[in-house]
Amino acid sequence: MFLAVEDYPRDLRELEARFSTEAACREYLFQLRWPDGFRCPRCGETKSWPKGDGLVRCAGCDYQISVTAGTVFQDSRLPLTLWFRAVWWVASQKNGVSAMGLQRVLGLKSYKTAWRLLHKLRRAMVRPGRDRLSGRVEVDEALVGGEEEGVHGRQRQTKARIAVAAEEDGTGIGRIRMRCIPDASADSLMPFVEDYVEPGSVVHTDGWLGYLPLKGRGYRHEVTFLKGNSKSASELMPRVYLAVALLKRWLMGTHQGGVSLEHLNAYLDEFTFRFDRRKSRSRGKLFYRLLEQAVAVEPVPYKSLVKCSGDQDF
Ligand SMILES: [Zn+2]
User: N or C: which end of the chain has fewer CB within 10 A?
Assistant: First the structure.
């Protein structure tokens, strides 16, 4: 009766054949949302009746719930068949798609619709309650954005400061986390580390004062001083440097640099989602994961609390 474990289309043809109707899409979302079977959020009853229009009715208390309520598909006027195609393109392209690219491939009339759709999907790229990084983790800050413009008398904000954490995996990189931070003070850096790195881990940073409180927060702090060191910063923090270089290339490549600072956190989430799954060979599996996370009800999305400063496009 329920989905076989990780049941997903293998290619575009399978997707088109399988999800050609709203009912087929809804059925799939239903099974992703309640993998162990329906459970009424109100009375706990496990029996339900389909009501049409994407609603199910609880057999215990008559409560009606939409399979898309509380998910990224809530309140969308776009058909689910279109959403599924969008998710397919986002998941199947190694570097993702720009809003313009998606507009073209889906034949959407409006650029704004494509942009909003992508933006909503980025919300699904952060798994609620995802694990924190652990083991040995490099942490550093970086500036992301275009070149500073020489504007006289007025400071134009064209760059955003981000904090980056990269897990060591032998000589390679494990998982990463990135987030905008208002400045490089301890007040900004400590919450970042605490949100994304498991206490007890070794946190490897440069000698910046903002990292000094780490020891008192339950981390093992390893410091490499850049000053007076014959090695360059990229050699001393190779994983963070590589992650940032790839991020910049992705922003310039896939998105042609057309990302506003205001929305940068969402792009950082997308980049992280792709980076952490870069070794996954199956694109269909990414499609499955993304839809699975899209129907997972997210309590308070963290990024709604933290905004990037700056308002200039870069
Ligand atoms: Zn009920």
Answer: N
Tokens of 78: 């776009």
Residues 6+ apart with CB under 8 A from 271: 178, 246, 247, 250, 251
Q: How far is the CA of 85 from the centre of ligand 1 (A)?
A: 33
Band (pLDDT 50/70/90 cuts) for residue 111 is: very high
Quick one: CA dihedral 27, 32, 37, 38, positive or negative? negative
Backbone angles phi, psi at 184, to 5 degrees: -100, 25
DSSP state of 260: B
Q: How many angstroms is it from 58 CA to the middle of ligand 1?
A: 5
Cα angle vertex 137, ends 134, 138, to 5°?
165
| CA gap 256, 58 in Å, rounded | 48
Non-local (6+) Cβ contacts of 145 within 8 A are 158, 159, 160, 261, 310, 314
| Distance separating alpha carbons of residues 255 and 131, to the nearest angstrom | 28
Cβ atoms within 10 Å, residue 300: 8
What are 56's strand-pairing partners? 50, 65
CA 50 – ligand 1 centroid, Å:
13
The string of pLDDT tens digits covering residues 38-95 is 888 889 999 998 877 778 899 999 999 888 888 889 888 899 999 999 999 999 888 8
Confidence tier at 303 by pLDDT (50, 70, 90):
very low
**Residue 33 CA, ligand 1 centroid: distance in Å:** 16
CA of 312 to the centre of ligand 1 (A): 49
Please tell me the predicted confidence (pLDDT) of residue 204.
96
